[in-house]
Fold:
Amino acid sequence: MTEAPVVLRLDGITRRFGALVANDGIDLDLRRGEIVALLGENGAGKTTLMNILFGHYVADEGVVSVAGADGVLAPLPPGSPHAALAAGIGMVHQHFTLAENLTGLENIMLGTEPILRLRKRAGAARRKVEALMGGSGLTVDLDVQVSRLTVGERQRVEILKALYRDARILVLDEPTAVLTPGESEGLFATVRALAAGGLSVIFISHKLGEVLAASDRIVVLRGGRKVGEMATAEADRRRIAEMMVGREVPASRRTPRERGRVLLSLERVTVAGDHRRSLHDATLEIAEGEIVGIAGVSGNGQAALAALMAGLVRPASGAMRLHGAPVARHDPRAFARLGIARIPEDRHHDGVVGAMTVAENVALEDIREPRFQRAGFLRFGAIRARAAQAIRDYDVRCQGPDIPARLLSGGNIQKLILARGLDREPRLILANQPTRGLDIGAQTEVHRRLLDARARGTGVLLISEDLDELMALSDRIVVISAGRLSAALPAEGLDRGRLGMMMAGHDEERAA
Amino acid sequence: MIVVEPRATLSRPLAALAPVLAGIAAMLLAAIPIAFAGANPIAAYGYMVSGAFGSMFAFSETLTRTTPLILTGLAAAVAFRARLWNIGGEGQLYAGALAAVAIGTGAIDAPSWVMIPLVLLAGAVAGALFFLGPAVLKLKFGADEVVTTLLLNFVMLLFVQMMLEGPLKDPMSLGWPQSAAITDAAALPALIPRMRVHAGLVVGLVAVLAVWLMMKRTVWGMEIRAVGENAPAARYAGIPVTATVLRVALLSGALAGLAGVGEVAGLKGYLTSDLSPGFGYSGIVVAMLAGLSPLGVVAAALFIASVFVGADSMSRGLGVASYIADLVVALSLLSVLVGGFFTRFRLRLARRTPAGAEG
Amino acid sequence: MDILDILLSANFWAASIRIATPLIFGVLGALICERSGVLNLGIEGIFTAGAMAGWMAVWLGLDLWPALLVVLVVGALFGLLHAVLTVPFGLSQHVSGIGITLLATSLSYFIYRTALPNVSTPPRIEPFRPLDIPVLSDLPFLGTALFSHTALTYLAIALVGVVAWILYRTPLGLAIRAVGDNPDSVDAQGLSVHALRTGAVMAGSALMAMGGAFLTMSAFDAFFFGMVNGRGWICIALTVFASWRPGKALLGALLFGAFDAFQVRLQTQVGAFLPSQVFLMLPYLLAIAALVVVARKADYPRALLVPWFKGSR
Structure:
């Protein structure tokens, strides 16, 4: 049987950002009808490579060649999404590129007609999209504003957008990050069907399991280089994991502990808000020395739960108790004083003030404490000392406490936030997506800190989209779906399939 | 292809130099309209410099003009630090002037050491309250403070006219709408005999020191900076954003109000509806030229004041319309905006590998 | 009743539409800029520049319609300056806008004063005359109220329809609405974010200049210092009130025009009891109130005030 022709060739792609080499001489071939998984941990350079392919970045060295309609490879003009689209490349970005004030159909039509045309031809477009929906099985209501679509539906619009433009090569960047396990399976089934019809697919992932299940060939990136490539059928799980990470990394292991006294309890708490940001009738308990994991697809109320725990919102109804006493004041400063350490989901948006120095950021939460100020005047010596200690103890890599925090890498910002919160020996930690976007080394570091805190008797609420992380760290797991919390299930021996069902909303047990 | 790259470290010397270059650029660009008006730009600059600094009297005039600009510049700088866009300095200035006139034209009989602080306090409070409204509207309703403060400027001007034709009208002014004169007890003394520069300048400089101290050394200053740079992160860290913004609003309005007090109680001696030729708006340019730094405000205010005083002289000497001063001020603002960009970013020419080259 | 008298007079309605006309231009211009994601606070200055440029073009000998072309170019040029500063370089839209207002205003005043250094009363030009439409202009009441306006007023109203059509029925409008919500969506579909935003700001600024030109070429016939008097800022408030929709923009401008016309007539009726300034304050206070009432739930374009840089993923 002859091999399918090559439709895409990356040749020696190199891209640097200052001193960092994000892609180092990467070669890659893609054949027609093939599904290639681009695997690597966070920071390995996968997204950068695909961004170069799609024209968001220009490579410093190397050539991208795409097969034309005649099958002959021709170089792709760099730096232009327009050229990439014209060459038949479609991309579903990790953060969706949809205009939320437009409908699905309008998003699909955007940019596909001559800009000075006097009238949109919605009718013809609709017919084509409906045919695509029928052929691919991806159905979505085209006339609903995207702001009202679920994450899964938005992804379908994104894929239809690419298919509408007659993509012959489809790139999916971390497509399952926002899907339930069930939805992920559905997506891969669809992708298989499309590939069988001649579409070539590259999907980026850092999850070994799904890569093994859904691809024909695996390419492993590490530190910007291609370190391995093999047919999936011949892939060895352990070898790939080692290739990804480059060394033996002990998995975070949790030793079973006795559950202590109840630290925090929520009783039938409701937080008002729009459908993605509300909590209904939530009941939850967190005890000393335990990690409670919240599993769920993003947009199901985690934001409301996190805001509640951070002191940013007050419950519309229901009771929230800390050490048995009702919470009096719902504001972040009061919560910090009560011993609740908070790690925000978006470290740049909520975690640090980028323009202020590292030292100022470390002291920011406690700036009113007597040790940092006297009669309103700042005690600079104490602030710098605290910063130096935090940098040392938490290994925050920076050029000193006086540089602006925005110059730190993501991992170091996270360490700064941890240093700020954990150093005060908190009684409770809210960790909201604490390892998102971090490389393996930084992830392990964060896990270690959380487990250490747990060992010291601190209670931890861990909200995460990473099921592996939740299973590894949590003592008990609660599933959040449409703003409602399930009963807490022991993590030991929990079946992932059952978890997946509950995340999709088919839950059998509710908290009383 | 030109690529925009953020600079790793804020280049300190460049950051300090940028406003100076901006001022120079503005002056150079102004040569075009000056030439268009038929005058020799070099001669024009000569008139400007001598008009602003050429004699003791000229210098005193420049300092007199600097006085309100220091305060309105400070008002804008403090507010902008917290990302609160106070464009209402003009209205707040008039509010302060009104309060000074209400209290200081004879309603209260007391010696200087009581009246002067009283009049200053009244003006500060009036200015603060006038900005409080828009600040609350922003915090509670999300109403853009740029628009509300701007529109209130017009409202306040009409209110002043109304007061001057009504309750505050000077019965001895022969029909022209102006207020009664500030009493001797309440008047800010002149700093140099027979010159117009007055103690308002001292008030301005003291305010500069106080604001500088606050921003650099106190908890409040740090909270203001945090709220201005990243309000959600500041809130997350426990800083009371609402209280901080209100504090900034009161301070900013108070400073602008003090500018009004100075003009009425130190310079003119009475209130008319044309008391301020746009000091509030020029204050914004002063603040931007100063890079929002309190100490820089003094230098920037002096620069803008000298442009206005110098332009008057140029207008008399060469017949160039005095609006040239407003033009220079506008060009300064745009120049400092562009200059600020270059201190934070760097342009790089990116080489694209030609198609077919080996990587 | 006095109030009823006012409301039932055809002149009142004619005045309302006349006062609303510059606001219609201004709000349409502002909403095009803001829909694409750029706040243009240069509007007050661009109004002034449009007023001065239009007047001066006619005073120098151009016919009215060619003079309007000059006005459009002047507006577009200031728009280009604002766009260059804020779109590719991402500088503060607030500061740039205020800078443009100061620049356009001072430049207009300077050029005017330099060209006419010694005049005490501003010279007059031959402005647009009210159109005499056969049959319609002679109707009782409606003839005066609706059909005796100048060409510019009818142009403004027609533009409401044109802008609405462009925004909602053409690919260009779709792209503008998208770039103001999520520039990445436009970039990922191969369009240029910078080109769209720059074009929108230039077009919007040209319309703003028309608003100013109406003052000197239709409503009045001479240029006065300070004649714009805050109309530009009122347009910014009305844009939020109009939810960035052309139809509501027309409605808002008409309501405001009616209120202003009402206030003027009320002065003559009730003026003995209240100083004139109280009435003059009312339009500004109304604009503030309109802004406050809708601000909470206003559907701001999501990418408004947020600069976008290529490769910022």
Notes: Chain B touches chain C through 46 residues (CB under 8 Å).
